[in-house]
Write a structure and sequence with these properties.
Elements: E1 9-12, E2 16-24, E3 27-32, E4 44-48, H1 49-53, E5 56-60, E6 66-68
Antiparallel strand pairs: 1-2, 1-5, 2-3, 3-4, 5-6
Length: 69
């Protein structure tokens, strides 16, 4: 099981990049950097834990770029 913590940056092929905002047992809220649908403003989505465990976790390198862990 992958550790899921608030504040962790993540990346998804479908959603782009985002930050884990909250963890509620089997559900995880992610605040995505950009809205999923053009013309909307909603960026906070609740996903099941299994989906979030499959996301690429990111870290900031020495040059300030986000790179996969």
């Amino acid at each position: 099981m992958v550790e899921i913590v608030e504040g962790q940056r993540v990346s998804s092929g479908d959603y782009g990049r985002g930050t884990i905002a909250a963890v509620f047992g089997s559900e995880v809220q992610v605040l995505w950097d950009s809205p999923l649908l053009e013309g909307t403003t909603n960026r906070l989505f609740t996903h099941d834990r299994q989906f979030v465990e499959r996301l690429t976790r990111l870290r900031t390198d020495d040059e300030g770029r986000e790179v996969p862990i």
